[in-house]
Amino acid sequence: MSGGDNLDFEIRPNPAPVTAAERDALLVNPGFGRVFTDHMVTVRYADGKGWYDARVEARAPISIDPASAVLHYAQEIFEGLKAYKMADGGVAMFRPDANAARFAQSAQRMAMPQLSQAAFLQSLREIIRIDQDWIPQNDEGSLYLRPFAYASEVFLGVRPALEYLYLVIASPVGAYFSGGVKPVSVWVTPDFTRAAPGGTGAAKCGGNYAAGLSAQAEAIENGCDQVVYLDAVERKYVDELGGMNVFFVQADGNLLTPPLTGTILPGITRDSVIKLAERAGRRVEERPVSIDEWREGAASGQIREAFACGTAAVITPIGTVKSPEGSFTVADGGSGSVTMAIRKELVDIQRGRAADPFGWVHRVL
Ligand SMILES: *Cc1c(COP(=O)(O)O)cnc(C)c1O
């Protein structure tokens, strides 16, 4: 059951918001995911009733029964997107309709009720409006929005829950890289896979992240920033990083990226990169890329650059690739020119500094 095409949000302003002086101090160097705004959105769902009790209220702890289904069987999904201060002083979100569509697909995969696109978008506009003073003013910062939903029914039986809670929280974030974009090193894990065919790889669910934490820890132990997963069947083809999709720039300037076959997350940044590259006259091949092709391509110069992309860091060059068989670098291990040009094009559209040929920028204020 989907329901809730439009919801009436009851607005209950926080009676004790953070003072302007405290907020300004928090916004100086917020980092990522540590500072939160004064409000949150909550919407309840019950089987037979649909979505109800939509509210914007003071951000506060939620009480959760120890038998809530999510604590046992992990029926949970989330999204992540950003609101930006635009060059003209207004506020906009980047492609929130795509997040709404993906949230609905994730819900379907996890046997959860779908929230309408209209209600999802409205929930984002409501929290941006009430917490607009929390959006960093500087060129690098943004307000990270985290919509999520979980099974709140108090029941230990194994079946899709009959009650859910949808929330949106907001977190001002600074530049992902202090001191400019730096290439990351990645660890090709021999021990773990992220998603198998038929699994939940294409759904944005907390469970995928829980299952990836050991692999990420292994990457850190091996001196790398991030883990790169190979496919679960042949252990040969590059899937993605723990939370970012991967692209390769070939010698002729065309791009190469693994296809969406159900085991990788369909990133909105990935889709945006494809559309921007094609508009610039680059061909984008979506096909399996083996780790051997990457290693040999880096050695021969056939693969000239590699980068990872996702909402949090936008586009990140990949410098060094390490595995138990040894390591190699892509070109000189630095930030490639095609990578950085695509990054700039995307960020300029997001910030309202460049024309928006695809209608991606969604004005809120
Ligand atoms: C969210 C996510 C991405 C990136 O998606 P964007 O829509 O570009 O932010 C990539 N991989 C995984 C596993 C993710 O969860």
Task: Describe it.
It catalyses: L-leucine + 2-oxoglutarate = 4-methyl-2-oxopentanoate + L-glutamate; L-valine + 2-oxoglutarate = 3-methyl-2-oxobutanoate + L-glutamate; L-isoleucine + 2-oxoglutarate = (S)-3-methyl-2-oxopentanoate + L-glutamate. This protein has 365 residues and is α+β, with helices and mostly antiparallel strands. 26% of the residues lie in helices and 28% in strands. It has eight helices and 18 strands. Strands 1, 2, 3, 4, 5, 6, 7, 8 and 18 form a nine-stranded mixed sheet that branches. Strands 9, 10, 11, 12, 13, 14, 15, 16 and 17 form a nine-stranded mixed sheet that branches. The chain is globular and about 60 Å long.
Series of H and E elements: EHEEHEEEHHEEEHEEEEHEHEEEHE
Instruction: Report the β-strand fraction as a percent range.
Output: 25-35%
CATH architecture of the largest domain: Alpha-Beta Barrel
Q: Low-confidence parts, pLDDT < 50 over ≥5 residues?
A: none
Largest sheet: 9 strands, mixed
Q: What's the shape? A: globular
**Into which percent range does the helicity of residues fall?**
25-40%
- Cα distance, first to last residue? 32 Å
Task: Report the oligomer.
Answer: single chain
Tally of separate helices: 8
The CATH superfamily name of the largest domain is D-amino Acid Aminotransferase, subunit A, domain 2
Number of strands: 18
Bound compounds, each kind once, are: pyridoxal-5'-phosphate
The CATH topology annotation of the largest domain reads as D-amino Acid Aminotransferase, Chain A, domain 2
Question: What's the overall average pLDDT, rounded?
Answer: 96
Helix vs. strand class: alpha+beta
Rg value: 21 Å
What is the CATH domain class of the largest domain?
A: Alpha Beta
Q: How many domains comprise the coordinates?
A: 2
GO molecular function: branched-chain-amino-acid transaminase activity
Family: Belongs to the class-IV pyridoxal-phosphate-dependent aminotransferase family.
EC number: 2.6.1.42
Keywords: Amino-acid biosynthesis, Aminotransferase, Branched-chain amino acid biosynthesis, Pyridoxal phosphate, Transferase
